[in-house]
Amino acid sequence: MRRFVRARRALSVVAVAAVLGLTAACANPFTLKVPGSGSGPESGPVTDGVPDELLPFYDQQLAWEDCDEPMTSEAVECASVTAPLDWHQPGAGEIQLRISRPADVPAGAQGSLLINPGGPGGSGIDYLHSVIENDAIGERLLEAYSVVGFDPRGVARSTPVECLDAEGMDAYLYDTSDAERGTDEWEAELDERAKTFADACAENSGELLEFITTEQSARDMDLLRGVLGDDRLTYLGYSYGTFLGATYANIFPERVDRFVLDGALDPSVSGSDVGMTQVIAFEQSLHTYLETCLGGSSCPFRGSVDQALDDVSSLLASLDARPLVSSDGRELGGDTMMTAIVAAMYNEANWPYLSEAFSGARSGDPTAAMFLADFYNDRTPNGYGSNSTEAFNAYNCMDYPSESEEMTEEDEQILEREAPVTWQYMLGADVCEFWPHPPSGEREAISADGADPIVVIGTTGDPATPFAWAEALADQLSSGTLITFEGEGHTAYGAGSDCVDDAVEDYLIDGTVPDDGLTCQPG
């Protein structure tokens, strides 16, 4: 019986654009300095209201230094913060959190602005470097705040989740099967691959795995607020980062200052519902891509959208039967081709790369498709650039309660009707079935009663975090206010809408709350 896998990793759209050589839109420079609630980036730690047993953590002094790490430059500096392994037993062990900020903090900055690019498993340090290098965050924010990126616990330069080596990751992510898709033999192969991955995580990460949860990470964020010298937290979170931000707001509503949650997750949705919703949303985005593609002169498909969808299905089936071999010996099968499709769906500007991938695969050349899949998996010619896949699985396996994830006949009928191309390539074995620790998270509505206004942004054509989730989160939050971006791709701030960018920056910088229900278009 088919099972739902956990949600597709939700990447930051700016990171996608940067790697593909594209530049996201940025706002015009503006140098407004408004006193905020923070004490400023050069002040000492804020420890008001901190329990005695946590004071040694909150009373740390930051030592900023050259990062001397991959994906960073002289424009960024870094520091380390010690956090409890388990916030509920602060004496049971410690981990390290790595953070970064622009080397030239603006004089008179009104405090810190913490950012998270999503995932779970995305590196805030890499993201900050990327947006600075590619002008993908408004100059107004960089001039008003000390913008701080951080690698959440388990991620990248913070104490990391460790699982397989590069060869093992290649096998886990790219290996093809000789068994027919959907058969017991095929499922057994996927189960064995998932178990190998989970066992490696248990062996190489040890006790850390039990505490890679969004609730623990939200408490880490409050520690960062304190050591950065801010009385309250100002935050910009994308995708999964919206769930992280909403979780923080629910735990510490009185410490919420100005929050923007872009590309929202619905915290009340179960893992199986997330999987099913995403499958359908990616199918819809593929349909939209094909409509646009067929209207141009360089589309690899001909005829109607339905005929093009049939051609995509035929291509996926042919890659299952006869995978294409890339220059390094890895194979492009149907699953990896679907990963390439998914990667391109995060940003409409990436669709030409998808057309190239389709053209290449149909003519026997896997190069462009492997490039997109490698981007999604953060694979480089020298191995893997981060542990994003490991951290993604670690967070999801602990955050989502166990449930029966076997598909019903009704589920299959819905997916066959709503997602006939994508559904069979986005379902399979669930690593979490073999995870060494039972999940500790809950899926429930978050209200964050008592928090200051929280701005939630949803994009109508977002396949990774569908618009309905943004509507749901804004409705759940007692102080939620919704911005609708009528566009394609994942997340909206910096994606080419002055309306969205101005609303976000006006709120974060001077506290002007946008009208609930504000609707924005590209341009």
From TrEMBL:
Chain ranges of the Peptidase S33 tripeptidyl aminopeptidase-like C-terminal domain: 429-520
Keyword line: Hydrolase, Signal
InterPro entries recorded: AB_hydrolase_fold, Pept_S33_TAP-like_C, Serine_prot/Carboxylest_S33
Coiled-coil ranges (or none): none
Gene Ontology molecular function: hydrolase activity
Pfam families in the record: Abhydrolase_4
Domain of life of the organism encoding this protein: Bacteria
SUPFAM superfamilies reported in the protein's UniProt record: alpha/beta-Hydrolases (SSF53474)
PROSITE patterns xrefs: PROKAR_LIPOPROTEIN (PS51257)
Protein name, UniProt field: Alpha/beta hydrolase
Species annotation: Microbacterium faecale
